[in-house]
Amino acid sequence: MVASTLAACGGGGGDSATPVLNWYINPDSGGQAAIAERCSAESNGAYQIEVSQLPRDSPAQREQLIRRLAANDASIDLMSLDVVFPPEFAQADFLAPVPEDVAQEVTEGVFQGAVDSATWNDELVAVPFWSNTQLLWYRKSVAEAAGLDMSQPVTWDQLIEAAEGQGKLLSAQGRRSESLMVWFNAMLESAGGQYIEESGESPDDIQFGLSTPEADRASEVMAAVANSSAVGAGFTTASEDTSATEFESDDAGFMVNWPFVYAQALSKVEAGTLDQSVPDDYGWALYPAVDEGTPSAPPLGGIDIAVSAFSPNPDLAYEAVTCIVQDENQAEYMVTNGNPASSIAVYDDPEVQEAYPMADTIRESLELAASRPLTAYYSEVLGSFLREFHPPGSVNDQTGERTETLTRAVLSGEQLL
Amino acid sequence: MTQTTLPPVEKTQPVSSPRGTISDRSRAERKLGWLLAGPAFLVMLLVTAYPIVQAVYYSLFSYRLTDPENRSFEGLGNYWVILTDAVWWQSILVTVIITVITVAVELVLGFALAMVMAKALSSIRPVVRAAILIPYAVITVVSAFAWAFAFRISTGFVNTWFAWLPGVSDTTDWFGGQASSLFVICIAEIWKTTPFISLLLLAGLAQVPDVLQEAAKVDGATAWQRLWKVTIPNMKAAIMVALLFRTLDAFRIFDSIFIMTAGANNTESVSFLAYRQTISRVEIGLGSAVSVLLFLSVVLIAFSFIKGFRVDLAQARGDR
Amino acid sequence: MSTKQKTWWWIGGVLIVVYCLFPIAWILSLSFKTTADLANKQFLPSAWTWENYTTILTGTASDLFLPALRNSFGICLIATFISCVLSMFAAYAIARLDFPGKKLILGTALAVAIFPVISIVTPLFNLWRQIGLYDTWPGLIIPYLSLTLPISIWTMSAFFREIPWEMEQAAQVDGATTWQAFRKVIVPLAAPGVFTTAIIAFFIAWNDFAYGISLTSTSRARPVPAALGLFSGASQFQDPTGAIAAAAVIVTIPVVVLVLIFQRRIVAGLTNGAVKG
């Protein structure tokens, strides 16, 4: 009774009999809004999805949502959550449980990494929507001149050497933000380590894997890259966008970055501000490994869709989620908005294949991709990490251990962040 | 001092008013005074005193918004954590550095601006006055963005323009280190708030009697001597008020840092630290403790100014 | 003054104007750059475009910007209005009546003016989410009063002290009723002061950022300064420099217009409030 009244009140516009579901989305190029419209129409009046935009970077998105949810705000039904946040939301009881049949349906044929990121305490708590991964981008001309065989796995050391030898740039993200964790975690996983070896309910139970030889190796590579002459000016403030712009310049050599860089270059060609020869020179491969013989462990990003525990209509919301994440929507979202699907089958879609010459590489990368540390205290873990690991040029074999100590102190409330 | 605020009314009191009713009248006036001023007074108290009392209360707990069950009483534990943490002292240091640099530069620059405005010819005075109000009226966030974009490697022109300076090149990363970041933050702050100081000083300049200037001139004092011996001593009150307001304002710096560096490279101010604990980390207890400490710092500064420098605000206001 | 001196003061004036307008000119120029041009490292665009303005007014960022603009105007105007009404009464009492506590009120206003905003944000955030004021207009209007009230009281009472109140009596002697005397004599004298105070209070509310980002979370109440930091580029990873610049220009226009029209009054108001000449 109360629920239905709330739902009716939450409506605002449109047909008053149709329950409105509010979907808080991360900014994109309008793709989620289009999907919302399509699913609303398909539901035949069962529900109407309205979208509201969250801030641009994921920590700010989390802040906004957490503040509202802590106020038991019933005006949120669906949320687009960055893959690092479901554990915290689930632990705080902010998420409505995923019905058994839905869980079954939305995890079938989905990348394992994406499913893992939406799982907490062995239960699916959110629904994988799209999955991002970083590739190693290279200028074919530069790689050729350096004599680097890009069909084989390459290591960071090889990249530094090749870029320095050719006087070209190796672009990565050295900024004090999430992207630094993305980078470090990928190298740590490639070295065979894990940021969090065992997670637990309470902070004291968490086992960190930072005082290990693997972490030291990852730190060593990070410092080597940051201190090499191959990185651009202002490396300590370089973001994904900085890297993408660098990679369009004449000094471009190699870069690790998300697939948006390709679409961005093409749109600049279309706008007449970039020569077609530039994207023609773009090559792509799997994320670099830390050492010869170690596996590539590309970063995993993307968005999961979660249903708020305070939603007046959780069942309807899950119905909507199942509609949102179906393959056709993921495929179209990938083509129009440049965000790769989490469903494996989508990569066989001819339209996707046509829009993404690197679709197969993305799929392969997503199959290998490693999640960032899954923990209910992600922002504390990230904050402590950034304090010790930024600037990346000063990182050494002590940094991991210091970070572990700091994170423990912060989690037990003995230190500020 | 205060009772002479505006007595003309009393001067024109009807003579017929009998003596005995004066106390009644003053009682009625008292009542009316509080009736009129009371609402404003109450609102001011409600929006500040109440929250700060709440903050003191919250600061005694360990309380994380996403983990309400584990809320527990900590006593002064949060304060102990903060005061023994290098992060707190680092943010104090940064805040003090910004405050001292900006206030010192603004005072000198503001004085120069005030002099020009006072002497500027009437033909261009309105133009200068309008221009000087613009930095004051522009949103701090906008000013911070403008300066950040100007200095940023990717979008800025500063490196191109000043490449001839030693240490500046096409690839100088201003936001890559603590000192250079603070330098840019200070520039943005100085640009934005100097006009306010200069207006206060301009009003102070007007208070300096012309007679004294003339007399000093006759005595053969140079312009420089007149400035130090006549002008400045006579506008001490205005300078102190400007100093007090700007110091307290600078100490609360938040917007520019948020926009320009978001606290990277050890550029976090105390306000920013408090914001992060509460709003980003949703640690209400710890954040409240930082807020209370920030409040106490501001009170301390205001108190030492008023006692130490004997800034008499009532006098400076003209309540003579 | 000799011609030489005149020239120097004139140059000084021109320098001040350049100093004050330079960053504004820069953000204006930036707002006309194309996406590719943003990184041209020059002051001026190599090709001019309206692209950034269309992005925020009709394009992808308009969902974020237009509601924010409406919120900013609405919230700031209401807060300004309330604080003007409240401080009008208070300033009248302070300037005109003799009652104990006058110093207390002015002192409180001063204390509130120097209050660190961030210190109030934490408890307000917690209180607002409990009583449902979080992310609403009143949820911002109320704390904005803490910014606008103190300066309004000081500025307005300084103005009111200058009013020759005895004229009211004179009018009454001439046979006007109290109300007529107030309306015909005092209101015209007091209006400029009230108006100036309103402009200054509006500037201060318009400038707020800390309350804006802490006490809102959607387009329902988020003001422009808070929204500026939330823009995004064509993709999640693209910097929205052009859109920010264009939005910054648009929110600067109202204050520049106010400044140009009322510069003399604003200067009088600002200096009266703090130091009376």
Model description:
The complex is a heterotrimer of chains A (417), B (320) and C (277). With 417 residues, chain A is α/β, with parallel strands linked by helices. Chain A has 2 domains: 2-132 and 301-368, Periplasmic binding protein-like II (D-Maltodextrin-Binding Protein, domain 2), CATH 3.40.190.10; 135-297 and 377-411, D-Maltodextrin-Binding Protein, domain 2, CATH 3.40.190. Chain A has helices at 2-11, 31-42, 58-70, 86-91, 100-107, 112-117, 140-146, 156-166, 178-190, 213-227, 240-248, 260-271, 277-280, 314-324, 327-337, 350-355, 359-368, 378-389, 399-411, and strands at 20-25, 48-53, 78-82, 119-120, 123-124, 127-133, 135-139, 169-171, 196-198, 207-208, 252-257, 282-285, 300-307. In chain A, the strands form 4 sheets. In chain A, strands 2-1-3-13-6 form a 5-stranded mixed beta sheet. Chain A has a 4-stranded mixed beta sheet with strand order 8-11-7-12. Chain A has a two-stranded antiparallel sheet with strand order 4-5. In chain A, α2 (31-42) links the parallel β1 and β2. The longest helix of chain A has 15 residues, at 213-227. Chain A starts with a helix and ends in a 6-residue tail after the last helix. Mean pLDDT of chain A is 89; it is low at 1-15. Chain B has a two-stranded antiparallel ribbon. Chain B has 15 helices and 2 strands. With 320 residues, chain B is mostly helical. Chain B has 2 domains: 21-54, no CATH class; 85-316, MetI-like fold (Orthogonal Bundle), CATH 1.10.3720. Chain B has helices spanning 8-11, 22-58, 77-83, 86-119, 125-137, 140-151, 158-161, 178-207, 210-218, 223-234, 236-251, 255-260, 270-280, 284-308, 313-316, and strands at 61-62, 72-73. In chain B, α6 packs across α8 and α9 (210-218) runs antiparallel to α10 (223-234). Chain C starts with a helix and ends with a helix. Chain C has helices spanning 3-31, 51-57, 62-96, 102-113, 117-131, 137-162, 166-173, 178-207, 210-214, 224-228, 241-274. Chain C has 277 residues and is an all-alpha fold. The mean pLDDT of chain C is 85. Chain C has a domain at 63-230: Orthogonal Bundle (MetI-like fold), CATH 1.10.3720.10. Chain C has 11 helices and no strands. In chain C, α1 packs across α11, α3 (62-96) runs parallel beside α6 and α6 (137-162) runs parallel beside α11. At the A-B interface, α3, α11 and α18 of A face α3 and α13 of B. Chain A: InterPro entries: Bact_solute-bd_prot1 (IPR050490), SBP (IPR006059). Chain A: It holds the Pfam family SBP_bac_1. Chain A: It comes from Geodermatophilus dictyosporus.
